[in-house]
Amino acid sequence: MRLTVASAVALALVTASLAAQETKPVPKNSVRVTVPGCTKGYVFTVAPRTVEAPGSADVPAGMHLRLNAPKKMMNDIKAHEGTLIQVTGLIRKGQYGPGGVSVGGVRIAPSSGNPQSGTLSMGGPANLVMMDVEGWQQAAGECR
Predict the structure, then answer these.
(1) What is each CA distance from 94 to 13, 19, 24, 53, 87, in whole angstroms?
(2) Which of 34, 40, 48, 50 registers the highest number of CB atoms within 10 A of its CB?
(3) pLDDT tens for residues 43-64?
(4) Using only C-alpha atoms, what is the Rg of the chain?
(5) Whole-angstrom Cα distance, residue 78 to residue 65?
(6) 127 vs 70: CA distance, rounded Å
(7) Beta strands in the chain (DSSP E)
């Protein structure tokens, strides 16, 4: 059986696409999350989960994340400001936990008596939880 040039190219494309679909292993000090939300610059605000964009259950709606992505991917994300997107990436375990955010060994959590208990206001962008973005996609819905 002879391998034609077209067959070789098709085989190479299939092999490359399968290799691209493999996900990197998660480091021991991180967790991979997928969350729906909206961006403004490098800041991503987590939206409430819906049936169309379920996301990870352990990241509360209203939380702000600082996105860290390659320049081309970040430009694509910025081009979709104002529309609901879903990002997947890694967050270090020490930055965020179910009880709030760890800053210098102290855990900061929203109070339960606060009417906006899902939001974390931490000051400037330097204090935001960092997310290393691995990928993103457009989600059904809109930003508020």
Answers:
(1) 40, 31, 20, 26, 20
(2) 34
(3) 999 988 776 656 666 788 888 9
(4) 19
(5) 14
(6) 21
(7) 30-40, 43-46, 64-68, 83-92, 96-97, 100-103, 106-108, 129-142
